[in-house]
Amino acid sequence: MRLPARVLAPVALAIAVGGCSLGGMLGGGKAPASLLTLTPEAPATGEFTRSGNAGQSVTVSTPVISKELRTTRVPVQVSPTDVQYVTDAQWVDTPDRLFADLISETIRRTTNRVVLDPGLTGLDPGLIVSGELRSFGYDAASGQAVVRFDGALSTAGGTRVETRRFEASAPSDGTGQTVGPALNRAANEVALEVANWIESRQAP
Predict the structure, then answer these.
(1) By the 8 A CB rule, do 78 and 3 touch?
(2) Are 116 and 201 in contact (CB under 8 A)?
(3) pTM here?
(4) Using one digit for the tens of pLDDT, what is the confidence trace for 31-74?
(5) Taking the CB of the first residue and of the last residue of the chain, which one, N or C, has fewer CB atoms within 10 A?
(6) Which helix (H) or strand (E) is 195 found in, with range?
(7) Which of 94, 91, 93, 86 is nearest to 29 (CA)?
(8) Phi and psi torsions of 142, nearest 5°
(9) Which letter does DSSP use for residue 19 in this model?
């Protein structure tokens, strides 16, 4: 499939060209006129100049995802055994990478922690955020865009590990026009909860 070159980055936004019925929302069809991304809702605080002692930094790993999420398309849970995809809605990257980037940026904006890229863990991995992104799509039964993340927080070397489930939802009609912004709101709510979880842990 040939992807369009134009990307709308300021907000998670898509143009819906299909109808509002379930049949019109799902299926193949042409590539969308714009691509979806995740945008941090936490206020930016200017330049990030941070320092910290050993063990105080945070590293956010790319979460594990299931096969239905290993795509740039937006899944629709039609029934417990039926997963389809929203027509005219497509991410700029896979949800696991977008979500990890959103968590990292939210931590930077809402805490005083040094946030490192996973490729820089040799410097000081400190607290490591990992986990599984279990849901990141539209639930047809509830009419909600749902983000569910089973997070794990561990210290370097795994001397202590904590787990916690985070979940948020936002209303959507399941079309490309509303599902992107709804997932962006839900993902930001989860990211903020993860940042608060980290901030509540005392640095060594």
Answers:
(1) no
(2) no
(3) 0.80
(4) 666 799 999 999 987 666 655 555 678 999 999 999 999 999 99
(5) N
(6) helix 176-199
(7) 86
(8) -95, -15
(9) -
Residue type, 124: D
Which residues are paired to 145 by β-bridges?
Answer: 138, 170
Reading the block at residue 58, the tokens are 């945070």
Length of the chain: 204
Tokens of 189: 């709510």
Q: How far apart are CA 34 and CA 81, in angstroms?
A: 30
pLDDT digits (tens, 9 = 90+) for 86-112: 998 999 999 999 999 999 999 999 998
Q: Within its chain, how far is the Cα of 190 from the centroid?
A: 8
The answer to whether the CB of 107 falls within 8 A of the CB of 115 is yes
Determine whether 100 is exposed, middle or buried from the number of CB atoms within 10 Å of its CB (0-12, 13-18, 19+): buried
- The closest of 130, 134, 162 to 146, measured between CA atoms, is 134
Compute the Cα dihedral for 104, 109, 110, 111 and give only its sign.
positive
153: left (phi over 0), alpha (psi -120 to 50) or beta: beta
Half-sphere exposure at residue 199, Cβ-oriented, CA atoms within 13 angstroms: 15
